[in-house]
């Protein structure tokens, strides 16, 4: 077999698998039970998009796609950090406390006081 045939078959298989991963991850974004689950799924979507771009760059031989994939990776990282920061500061329920605050009050982390 020629090298072009192997690369063509491998890239077709890779694109098919990434399509399946993309749809499963998009399903997790829609159905994710919590906000952090959705954020991780969005980060995974960025990683899959980078994979798509890399495979297309290999298939076409156009190297500018690699630069686009790197830029998308940087933007995706910054978006994930921003979402994580949002969850840390605003994503809690009003009655939840941080474990550090609970420990300062003498209660073990993870246990809530029952109000009567």
Task: Explain this structure.
With 116 residues, this protein is mainly alpha-helical. It has a single domain (3-104), classed as Helix Hairpins (Orthogonal Bundle), CATH 1.10.287. It has helices at residues 3-31, 35-60, 64-90, 99-104. The N and C termini lie far apart (76 Å). The model has no long low-confidence stretch (mean pLDDT 86).
Distance between the termini: 76 Å
Contiguous runs where pLDDT drops below 50 for at least 5 residues = none
CATH class: Mainly Alpha
N to C succession of SSEs: HHHH
* Share in helix: over 70%
CATH topology group:
Helix Hairpins
Structural class: mainly alpha
What sort of overall outline do the alpha carbons produce when their principal axes are compared?
elongated
Write down the domain tally.
Answer: 1
Residues in β-strands, percent = under 5%
Compact summary:
The chain is an all-alpha fold and 116 residues long. The chain is built from four helices and no strands.
